[in-house]
């Protein structure tokens, strides 16, 4: 038997869907086995999960609410992944964004929302962006590996948030719980349902940030000179410098913008869903965003779709937690397994594999005239 | 500070350094073969649980240690499979491994939170343990710390004094040349990744068997990432890995002592120390590597680059 692997000349087309579904099925199979190992129904558990995620109108809305921060963070990391800058600091930038927004909300209480909310977003994007610029600067000027520095800054950022919430920002009326005072009404993003006269559950106006950011991302990448240069930088630093592209500027730009987007997500999350800052605002959206960005191969529409999918998965896991007493970590396992399986599966998008058996090969060599005619 | 306190602090530093040292050595093996493994954090988490549960069931700390190592090798085998057979991006595969591993460890471990294990207890080495100061710091530790004294020497010997190590390094520098020399780069890489995984697994096992003696989730707490950073700090050399691990062990022990002593400094700021120090260490090694421009300080040339199939 002889295995021949070739790089594909043409795209797999609809076959790609089969590859993705196959990888997804494998990942879900692994998860089902894990459920069975801990004495729970395997396929039944997955059924509960999917019914919990997609079964009802309100569960879909809940998925949409959770998709907002994931989508924004994911756009941010995808931007830097495009030029092979591995920003895995979205989680920390998210934390800094929440801190920045809270600072403004606490400093300017009682302001109307048209004043307060923009200022909060601005502060959040500034804080998140600056947090993202640290690893970028270290990488550019000192050659420090951005993977590790951005990751370490996640821990530092989250601990900084906790330092504030457990300390100077702690609400005296919170009975010792680590949380700030509630933002004044002007600092809270409202829900869409009441204003539109519809029953939209927890869905809030922060959703509007997603199409705005998504369109800006698409236009930037496909319609601007910098966007093209960014794509060219994906070939590596040496190529970029040789082609006289503004490599350093682009590194700072993508890390700054990525941080700003993650910061925006952080501010929306604490303003809309919590109405205050508390450590529970950190639920790992920044890491899910990395999974999403890669699953979606860094393209905007697939990022939107995958954000919703993984957000819904989180909703489903919450239902599973309640119904079968499954630890919350099950969601992480699913994300990791899906990413590993899809990553392996993407091999079949780029390469063709053909297996030739020895007997066939002998038949080939038995017809030598063929080669001459070809 | 009294002298006794300093000795206790130093001994605690050596203990805290052990898991990081094992993981750093493991990552050095993997990277020397040309495979970047960012899954160390997840591998340590899984290994900590595998070691705990084995020790809990069988009552044998040695079996627990082996189970931790094997779990680490197995999980890294998955990384090897995704990167070497399916040519997946090494950065992404490693991240996925971390997410998967930490999740799996928490998932399987949740029912056991709060259960203790016998694990490894500290004992004094005859004679050496009686040396003043040094004896108390280095030779009244547990068996795994003693194992940790030999591990860097073993890894150094393997890498620079054996033909297997030479092949491993060749694969990390230029797989095509290694193949032309009659070696099998794929097999060597798989060996490097899985042997490295075994060492990372030992580091993880240390956490549940000797560090806490008690199972809780989230035991790895960023140590895997620190190990990845220390590989760069160590310039891929086992000897410097010891230095880095001791440095981090020192900071971790220091901030724990300070917390236990009940200082006015908020614990969240103290907990930041190891992570902030990691960034500082990276800055330091980056400037060192630049100024000296020595080849010895450079990463293996083919690190992170998958071997393309022929044809």
Q: Can you walk me through this structure?
A:
The complex is a heterodimer of chains A (374) and B (311). With 374 residues, chain A is mainly alpha-helical. Chain A has a single domain, classed as ABC transporter involved in vitamin B12 uptake, BtuC (Orthogonal Bundle), CATH 1.10.3470. Helices cover 70% and strands 3% of the residues of chain A. Chain A has a two-stranded antiparallel ribbon. In chain A, α3 (57-82) crosses α12 and α4 (90-107) packs antiparallel against α5 (113-142). The longest helix of chain A has 30 residues, at 113-142. Chain A is globular. The two termini of chain A are 25 Å apart. Chain B is an all-alpha fold and 311 residues long. Chain B has one domain (3-297): ABC transporter involved in vitamin B12 uptake, BtuC (Orthogonal Bundle), CATH 1.10.3470. Helix content of chain B is 71%, strand content 0%. Chain B is built from twelve helices and no strands. Chain B has helices at residues 3-32, 40-58, 61-85, 90-109, 134-138, 143-161, 163-173, 175-180, 185-211, 223-233, 238-260, 267-292. In chain B, α2 crosses α10, α3 (61-85) runs antiparallel to α4 and α10 packs parallel to α12 (267-292). The mean pLDDT of chain B is 91. The chains are: A mainly alpha (374), B mainly alpha (311). Chains A and B meet through β1, α6, α12 and α14 of A and α3, α4, α10 and α12 of B.
What's the gist of this structure?
With 374 residues, chain A is mostly helical.
Looking at this protein, list some descriptive labels.
heterodimer; A: 374 residues; ABC transporter involved in vitamin B12 uptake, BtuC; B: 311 residues; globular
Radius of gyration of chain B, in Å, reads: 19 Å
What is the CATH T-level topology of chain B?
ABC transporter involved in vitamin B12 uptake, BtuC
Provide the succession of SSEs of chain B. HHHHHHHHHHHH
Distance between the termini of chain A: 25 Å
Assembly state of the chains shown: heterodimer
* Main CATH class of chain B: Mainly Alpha
CATH class of chain A: Mainly Alpha
The chain-level mean pLDDT of chain A equals 89
The CA-CA distance between the termini of chain B, in Å, is 67 Å
- Helix content bin of chain A: over 70%
The rough form of chain A would be described as globular
Q: Using only CA atoms, what is the Rg of chain A? A: 24 Å
Largest interface: A-B, 51 and 53 residues
Poorly predicted parts of chain A: 361-374
Strand content of chain B: under 5%
* Separate helix tally of chain A: 17
What is the averaged pLDDT score of chain B?
Answer: 91
- Poorly predicted runs of 5 or more residues of chain B: none
